[in-house]
């Protein structure tokens, strides 16, 4: 508190030496004397109540500008040393000083108010008492020091959610946007910090866009100041959460992606992280997914993905996930060397969100190309999934089983996946507490069981190996799904049984024909047209994303298909047919090359739907 003593005491003593004392009112002389005494005992004095506050208040409301300066300086230096919740009796004199025409008084009063605005209770009370109006006036001051303090105070006030909308509607955004271009770096930092604090709600973001903040924020991405870069990058990341704002950015800010890609190589880790997150939000849109790759964003994203710093891993993984949605980006991502780092992140047990982003990216990369599916399996993705899937959190299980279901669409890879023993982990997961995990696991098993253009050399022994185990094996899983109240699950079961019967494998055919567990349920479904309930498993993340064969089961047509498939099974079970279904019954949509292309198209569409809207957090 030595600075307070030297400042205030020198003011008062100077005034006496210039014979100002006769000009002071009696109460002002007493206030000066009292304050000097309190400053002598400053270590034990509470300036926010009682006589010390009364003395400061008297000087604040004086008509003598020198006394106002002394009071304002005292408030500034006292609050710099100590901040506590204060009442109206403290704020009123400071707000009065803020309305002074004297630059020195304005500067010190706005500094004091900014110091007090660090406290949560004070933030609310300052706004409630009308503090925004004089602060906006001070932001328009020609004096840089006054601008800096006023903007700094608004920045602190804007950290409280209850104040944000009031600030947005107060007229503060236009001067804040103008001051963000200030040549004074302190003013620029405070102004961009304030703008960032205003980007945390839809309504405020819109007010900010209307105030013309977007071009200012984009231009300041190239600032040499790390704090300004960080504030602007984070603000733009928040603004890009809204689809309408992304369209505005796309129309008017042609250099945005290039600037953000450059910032992923910033010396500052927090700037790198926010740049990746901003690109992640932009990559909710197809245009930006392509533009990020075109701007060589993959090089920096790959480096961040292999960082040891969790926020960088998380932000880059989220960004790559969105970029991978576009079919044209699948091969460039694989060719840039992402497969192994993504597979390594599947076992990143410190953060399940990282695991989810990694496996979802792999699923996207596998979506539309046989070559990419093969590369993913060759890189060891399925082996890692098999080792991890029973132990990872449920959300990760859902993504992993969905990825296997996509890979299992490839006729060339089915045998390889079966040889790896993937069924051994999929079967237990058909009994998961999560309907999504259940559906995705069953979809994967169904896709593994189906094959276009079967040959005598096709090996279905893997299904015989798991017919009764683990956890009751295929046998118990198919029974559970046949007897489910969910029509989607019933459909998966009858469709899968048709595939197994069409395999021509004598052991499988015998297992199904002789099953006292399955056949009663199949007969019941063959006779019934009563609509069953459907579960939430029919979402873009569920088994319907993986195979076209299971679509439309929540409609009457789906129920009819369940009945048709059940009857086809019974024709086989009750008839004298060996090695396949009667040809008159075999020509359904579950076989034939046309289904494969339809299935791929359904998959591509569902993957786009799954991630095109859920890209900001």
From TrEMBL:
<feature type="repeat" description="ARM">
    <location>
        <begin position="337"/>
        <end position="380"/>
    </location>
</feature>
<feature type="compositionally biased region" description="Low complexity">
    <location>
        <begin position="584"/>
        <end position="597"/>
    </location>
</feature>
<dbReference type="InterPro" id="IPR045156">
    <property type="entry name" value="Vac8"/>
</dbReference>
<dbReference type="InterPro" id="IPR016024">
    <property type="entry name" value="ARM-type_fold"/>
</dbReference>
<comment type="similarity">
    <text>Belongs to the beta-catenin family.</text>
</comment>
<feature type="repeat" description="ARM">
    <location>
        <begin position="212"/>
        <end position="254"/>
    </location>
</feature>
<feature type="region of interest" description="Disordered">
    <location>
        <begin position="581"/>
        <end position="617"/>
    </location>
</feature>
<dbReference type="GO" id="GO:0000329">
    <property type="term" value="C:fungal-type vacuole membrane"/>
</dbReference>
<feature type="compositionally biased region" description="Polar residues">
    <location>
        <begin position="529"/>
        <end position="552"/>
    </location>
</feature>
<dbReference type="InterPro" id="IPR011989">
    <property type="entry name" value="ARM-like"/>
</dbReference>
<dbReference type="GO" id="GO:0043495">
    <property type="term" value="F:protein-membrane adaptor activity"/>
</dbReference>
<dbReference type="GO" id="GO:0071562">
    <property type="term" value="P:nucleus-vacuole junction assembly"/>
</dbReference>
<keyword id="KW-0926">Vacuole</keyword>
<feature type="repeat" description="ARM">
    <location>
        <begin position="171"/>
        <end position="213"/>
    </location>
</feature>
<comment type="function">
    <text>Functions in both vacuole inheritance and protein targeting from the cytoplasm to vacuole.</text>
</comment>
<keyword id="KW-0472">Membrane</keyword>
<feature type="repeat" description="ARM">
    <location>
        <begin position="255"/>
        <end position="297"/>
    </location>
</feature>
<dbReference type="Pfam" id="PF00514">
    <property type="entry name" value="Arm"/>
</dbReference>
<feature type="repeat" description="ARM">
    <location>
        <begin position="89"/>
        <end position="131"/>
    </location>
</feature>
<feature type="repeat" description="ARM">
    <location>
        <begin position="130"/>
        <end position="172"/>
    </location>
</feature>
<feature type="compositionally biased region" description="Basic and acidic residues">
    <location>
        <begin position="598"/>
        <end position="608"/>
    </location>
</feature>
<feature type="repeat" description="ARM">
    <location>
        <begin position="296"/>
        <end position="338"/>
    </location>
</feature>
<protein>
    <recommendedName>
        <fullName>Vacuolar protein 8</fullName>
    </recommendedName>
</protein>
<keyword id="KW-0449">Lipoprotein</keyword>
<dbReference type="InterPro" id="IPR000225">
    <property type="entry name" value="Armadillo"/>
</dbReference>
<feature type="region of interest" description="Disordered">
    <location>
        <begin position="529"/>
        <end position="557"/>
    </location>
</feature>
<keyword id="KW-0677">Repeat</keyword>
<dbReference type="GO" id="GO:0000045">
    <property type="term" value="P:autophagosome assembly"/>
</dbReference>
<keyword id="KW-0519">Myristate</keyword>
């Amino acid at each position: 508190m030595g600075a307070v003593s030297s400042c205030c005491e020198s003011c008062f003593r100077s005034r006496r030496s210039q014979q100002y004392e006769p000009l002071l009112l009696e109460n002002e002389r007493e206030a000066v004397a009292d304050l000097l005494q309190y400053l002598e005992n400053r270590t034990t004095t509470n300036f926010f109540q009682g006589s010390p506050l009364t003395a400061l208040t008297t000087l604040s409301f004086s008509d003598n500008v020198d006394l106002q300066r002394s009071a304002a300086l005292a408030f500034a230096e006292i609050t710099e040393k100590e901040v506590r919740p204060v009442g109206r009796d403290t704020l009123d004199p400071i707000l009065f000083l803020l309305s002074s025409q004297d630059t020195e008084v304005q500067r010190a009063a706005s500094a004091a108010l900014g110091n007090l605005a660090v406290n949560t209770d004070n933030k609310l009370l300052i706004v409630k008492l009308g503090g925004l109006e004089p602060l906006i006036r001070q932001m328009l001051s020609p004096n840089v020091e006054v601008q800096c303090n006023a903007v700094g105070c608004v920045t602190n006030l804007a950290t409280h959610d209850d104040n944000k909308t009031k600030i947005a509607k107060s007229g503060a955004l236009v001067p804040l946007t103008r001051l963000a271009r200030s040549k004074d770096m302190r003013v620029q930092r405070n102004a961009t910090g304030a703008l960032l604090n205003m980007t945390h709600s839809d309504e405020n973001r819109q007010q900010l866009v209307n105030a013309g903040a977007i071009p200012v924020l984009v231009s300041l991405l190239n600032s040499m100041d790390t704090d300004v870069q960080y504030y602007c990058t984070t603000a733009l990341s928040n603004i890009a959460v809204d689809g309408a704002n992304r369209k505005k950015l796309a129309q008017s800010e042609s250099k945005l992606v290039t600037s953000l890609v450059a910032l992923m190589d910033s010396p500052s880790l927090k700037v790198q992280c926010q740049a990746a997150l901003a690109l992640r939000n932009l990559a909710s849109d197809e245009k930006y997914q392509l533009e990020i790759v075109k701007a060589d964003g993959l090089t920096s994203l790959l480096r961040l993905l292999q960082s040891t710093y969790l926020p960088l891993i998380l932000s880059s993984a989220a960004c790559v996930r969105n970029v991978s949605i576009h079919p044209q980006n699948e091969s460039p991502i694989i060719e840039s060397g992402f497969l192994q780092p993504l597979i390594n992140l599947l076992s990143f047990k410190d953060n399940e969100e990282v695991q989810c982003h990694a496996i979802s990216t792999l699923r996207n990369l596998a979506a539309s190309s046989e070559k990419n599916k093969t590369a993913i399996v060759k890189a060891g993705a399925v082996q890692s999934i098999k080792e991890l899937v029973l132990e990872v959190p449920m959300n990760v299980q859902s993504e992993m089983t969905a990825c296997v279901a996509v890979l299992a669409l490839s006729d060339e890879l089915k045998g390889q996946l079966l040889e790896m023993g993937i069924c051994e982990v999929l079967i237990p997961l058909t009994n998961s507490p999560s309907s999504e995990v259940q559906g995705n696991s069953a979809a994967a098993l169904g896709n593994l069981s189906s094959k276009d253009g079967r040959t005598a050399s096709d090996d279905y022994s893997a299904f015989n190996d798991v017919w009764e185990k683990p956890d009751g094996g295929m046998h118990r899983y198919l029974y559970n799904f046949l007897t489910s109240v969910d029509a989607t699950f019933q459909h998966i079961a009858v469709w899968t049984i048709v595939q197994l019967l069409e395999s021509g494998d004598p052991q499988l055919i015998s297992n199904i024909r002789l099953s006292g567990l399955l056949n009663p349920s199949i007969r019941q479904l063959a006779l019934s047209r009563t609509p069953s309930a459907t579960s939430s498993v029919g979402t873009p993340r569920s088994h319907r994303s993986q195979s076209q064969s299971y679509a439309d089961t929540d409609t009457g047509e789906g129920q009819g298909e369940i009945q048709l498939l059940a009857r086809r099974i019974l024709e086989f079970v009750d008839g004298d047919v060996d090695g396949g279904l009667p040809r008159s019954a075999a020509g359904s949509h579950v076989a034939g090359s046309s289904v494969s292309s339809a299935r791929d198209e359904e998959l591509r569409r569902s993957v786009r739907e799954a991630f095109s809207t859920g890209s900001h957090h």
